[in-house]
Amino acid sequence: MSTIIRKIRASVLLAGVFFATNSFAQEVPLLEGVTTRAENNPTVEEGKYKKDAPWVIGMSSFGVNANTWTVQVAHEAQAAADNDKRITKFILLDAGFDQKKQVADIEDLIAQKVDAIIVQPVTSTSANASIEKAVAAGIPVVLHTGRIESEAYTTEIQGGAEHFGKVMGDFLVKELGGKGNIWVLRGLAGHPEDTNRYNGLKQSLEGTEIKIAAEEHGDWQYDKAKKVCETLYLSDPNVDGIWSSGADMTRACVDVFKQFGSPIPPISGEGNNGFFGQWIADGFKSISSEYSPAQGAAGIRAAVALLEGKALHKHYDYNPPGWDLEKVKKYYRDDLSANVWWPSELSEEQLKEFYAKQ
């Protein structure tokens, strides 16, 4: 097993030291870098959802095959469920970006009388009514990878999307000295993560002379983003920097500039092995916002904690700092494909099974 994987596992086991707690909520190691929200953060009553094992846990994904990151989230969640012998069945349902399908999926899980439900919402409103039905039926609901407009869920673990976008935006503001034109590559239109990451960028640009020369949705996918970047380049290649909402899109744009033999402008990235390899090899200016696919495992741990009868906070935030090139070099794996994301909790055997280079 690699040194990096050992370090990740050790940090997960010790992650309780990163949690701010009060006299009511208990320390639960959900994910390294996660903290309790400081204000307006009620506590889920201790013992409210306590239930004897064995347990069946369901999960409604907004789209398992949205990109390589969402595929790994599913792997991470499944691995965490497999590692807890009290979970006898883990049911993962894929909404495929369809709001109606997500509603039907959650109601199907309720009908199956699962013990807890994890939800990654398609949109900020798509799952609201179904979540309310689940909680009314006595089923705790854990939310992650997208905020919703309802407070009906039991607890949430949210990567701070504005924070994520602002880490990238602040990098570009610094590199460009507060002036210049940028391209903006957004994710899936209508998804709360896309909207809120973009809001983080806008916070960074306030008071600067940086202008958004072009703005397109690449859906967090390599192939679509490559077509977008090719079109933008052929229209006007003179861009000072690129804000990319996801690493698969970053990789695509880097490849476009290399394809045309042009210098790569400062461009934001994310914890993707393929992007890490590009950055190390080509030495362009970048930053990597952290958004671990192990949020899938964290959702499982939160559901288990509730079923154990532990008192959790309603809101947990995941706002880690960006990674520089030196940290990236410690995680990059040349023996694995471009499709693995860091940091991960998958075992060395699982990493090789899913992501070994063919």
TrEMBL record:
Organism annotation: Rhizobium meliloti (Ensifer meliloti)
UniProt-recorded name of the protein: Substrate-binding domain-containing protein
GO cellular component: outer membrane-bounded periplasmic space
PANTHER family (alphabetical): ABC TRANSPORTER PERIPLASMIC-BINDING PROTEIN YPHF (PTHR30036:SF7), D-XYLOSE-BINDING PERIPLASMIC PROTEIN (PTHR30036)
Keyword Iron-sulfur tagged: no
Entries under CDD domains matching the protein: PBP1_ABC_sugar_binding-like
Database matches in Gene3D superfamilies: 3.40.50.2300
Lineage: Bacteria, Pseudomonadati, Pseudomonadota, Alphaproteobacteria, Hyphomicrobiales
GO molecular function: carbohydrate binding
Signal peptide positions on this chain: 1-25
Entry similarity comment: Belongs to the bacterial solute-binding protein 2 family.
Keyword Phosphoprotein: no
Superkingdom per UniProt: Bacteria
Domain Periplasmic binding protein per the UniProt entry, residue ranges: 64-310
Keywords of the record: Signal
